[in-house]
Design a protein that fits this description.
By secondary structure, this protein is of the alpha/beta class. The protein has a single domain, classed as Rossmann fold, CATH 3.40.50.1000. It has helices spanning about 30-40, 60-80, 105-115, 130-140, 150-160; strands at about 5, 45-50, 85-90, 125, 140-145. It has a five-stranded parallel beta sheet with strand order 3-2-1-4-5, sandwiched between helices.
């Protein structure tokens, strides 16, 4: 079974600008593209799963969110060689949806899309406890709190593969 690498976006893969609306402001975090590219080449199925409640809260429009996503995917593909598949929850915290982390809905949507179950070799990386809770609830065997150091995260995941 191919393991998943589920990744949060803001403050994990890109600089957090709080409700990003300007594609020109998208900036990859140092080491993210190299680490994720290497893990993809080692057999991980990579999926970005991210809460983006700025849409429900009226801080950004759906078009702005789509433009930021397109720029993010473009920059990441150029830097890593990986074309990312992304799932976003645009609901607000009070909406009661199943896709907003800490619920596992986004991860399960990705697994259905790829047609394979989430197994114990799967990994979730994010900057908030809700990211890790979603990974555990979905069945990931490893959850990693991102604290700004992609080389350390990369090494921890590679150790897990050994």
């Amino acid at each position: 079974m191919t393991p998943y690498l589920f990744l949060d976006r803001d403050a994990t893969l890109i600089r957090d600008t709080v409700y990003p609306r300007d594609p020109a402001a998208v900036e990859l975090l140092p080491g993210a593209a190299d680490a994720v590219g290497d893990l993809a080449r080692r057999g991980f199925t990579v999926a970005v799963v991210s809460n983006q409640s700025g849409v429900a809260r009226g801080f950004i429009t759906p078009d702005e969110a789509a433009a930021v996503d397109a720029r993010f995917v473009e920059l990441f593909a150029v830097a890593s060689g990986v074309t990312l598949a992304c799932w976003y929850c645009f609901h607000g915290p009070a909406d009661g949806c199943d896709c907003r982390k800490p619920k596992p809905g986004l991860l399960l949507q990705a697994a259905r899309h790829f047609g394979q179950p989430i197994g114990p070799r799967s990994v979730t990386v994010g900057d908030k406890p809700s990211d890790l809770d979603a990974g555990r609830a979905a069945g990931c065997g490893l959850t990693v709190l991102f604290e700004g150091d992609w080389p350390a995260v990369h090494a921890r995941i590679r150790e897990r593969l050994a």
